[in-house]
Design a protein that fits this description.
Layout lengths: L2 H7 L3 E5 L3 H5 L2 H8 L2 E5 L2 H10 L4 H9 L4 H26 L7 E4 L8 H15 L4 E6 L4 H10 L4 E6 L2 H20 L8 E6 L1 H7 L11 H17 L2 H8 L6 E5 L12 H5 L5 E5 L1 H10 L13 H10 L4 H37 L1
Parallel strand pairs: 1-2, 1-8, 3-4, 4-5, 5-6, 6-7, 7-8
Helix pairs in contact: 4-16, 5-16, 6-16, 7-8, 8-9, 9-11, 11-15
Length: 361
């Protein structure tokens, strides 16, 4: 039994943090589903930027859309929806079998809208309608401005992947927005089964402090924050308020570990997979991390609902001069700005490729 299958059998969903047309046309994604227990997929602007920039698989589609007068964001979202609806169809049997617990893919609204609540909600609604797939999550950042859009999207029945979460406080704010949307649906006699995941980024914590802490603390901060967040997750699931929502027919918003590829070349390539095994969570992995887990991965001790040693470890970081709360806010802002930069680069790549293909036609 591969370690990916063993991890899945312990109750954690393994999603692929990647999308490209080549993954679809070569049958690679279908093989990952069949052989590596992959049950979902996430994407982001950086992933699409790399896929479109480095592959000729999009050339014919880009040329056709340019001939139709399309460009920029309009052209990109057509490409992205073509890829992600195909991926959603591959995962649809899993979604059906698990009755919507698993089998999801994700598409992000434009990061340029991150500070505009109304425009974020409008974009989420439009993408949801265009995709026309029940197992496609719309990614909305869990920023101050994004939280009201998350609540409204859930109330509108739009499945949401809350992205760019870095701490248990940020996770709790996202979970609160989700629950408010569900409670409003219950009060309005609307079906409360709206899918959602809350994506907490892990490896960026350790990259941020790699040169600021003693060697003994290297690569421990992200895991400690994850354990603390898992405690908050389990506490919320057991709370009377959540139980009332479940009794009304709602499904839990699942906790998802994102950014789980190891950035430190001296550390294990499955560091965050081994450390963050936990039932009823998702780990979305870069392709290299997924392959490493299948090849030589081990299953670590599953996380405990009490947060394990997270308080002790975080106290050591505090003693080393790391303000974890301030760093969480900084990482969320840096993540938002990074996605904006990737988005702008993606649109430039599309414009450049469009111009080259137009001249060649």
């Amino acid at each position: 039994m591969k370690a990916t299958e063993a991890l899945h059998d312990q109750g954690q969903s393994l999603w692929l943090d990647n999308i490209s047309r080549d993954l679809l046309t070569t049958g690679t994604l279908a093989r990952y589903i069949e052989q590596l227990s992959v049950t979902g997929l996430t994407s982001n602007p950086t992933i699409f930027d790399h896929s479109i920039k480095t592959s000729s698989a999009y050339d014919a589609a880009v040329r056709k859309k340019v001939e139709e007068g399309k460009s920029g964001e309009e052209l990109f979202f057509e490409l992205a929806l073509e890829d992600l609806t195909r991926a959603a169809d591959l995962f649809r049997p899993i979604w059906d079998r698990t009755r919507g617990v698993d089998g999801w893919v994700s598409l992000e609204v434009s990061p340029l809208l991150a500070n505009d609540t109304a425009s974020t909600l409008a974009a989420a609604e439009a993408l949801h309608v265009r995709a026309d797939r029940p197992n496609l999550l719309i990614k909305i950042p869990g920023t101050k401005e994004g939280l009201p859009a998350i609540e409204e999207a859930i109330f509108a029945g739009i499945p949401v992947n809350v992205t760019l979460l870095f701490s248990h406080q940020q996770y709790q704010a996202a979970a609160e927005a989700y629950l408010r949307g569900i409670e409003r649906r219950v009060a309005a006699d609307l079906p409360p089964e709206v899918g959602s995941v809350a994506s907490v980024f892990i490896s960026r914590w350790d990259a941020a402090v790699a040169h600021e802490v003693p060697e003994a603390l290297r690569n421990q901060l992200g895991i400690a924050v994850a354990k603390q967040t898992y405690r908050a997750y389990r506490t919320l699931l057991a709370s009377p308020r959540y139980q009332r929502a479940f009794n009304a027919g709602a499904r839990p918003q699942r906790l998802l570990w994102a950014s789980t590829g190891t950035k430190d070349p001296s550390a294990s390539d499955i560091l965050y997979v081994h450390a963050l095994a936990a039932p009823f969570t998702v780990n979305t992995m870069p392709e290299a991390t997924l392959k490493a887990q299948a090849d030589h991965g081990e299953i670590g001790q599953t996380l405990t609902p009490d947060g394990g040693d997270s308080d002790e470890v975080l106290a050591r970081f505090s003693a080393a001069g790391i303000d974890v709360d301030a760093l969480a806010a900084r990482l969320q802002d840096e993540g938002r700005r990074s996605f904006v930069a990737s988005w702008r680069e993606l649109l430039q790549v599309i414009d450049s490729k469009s111009a080259v293909l137009e001249r060649a036609s």
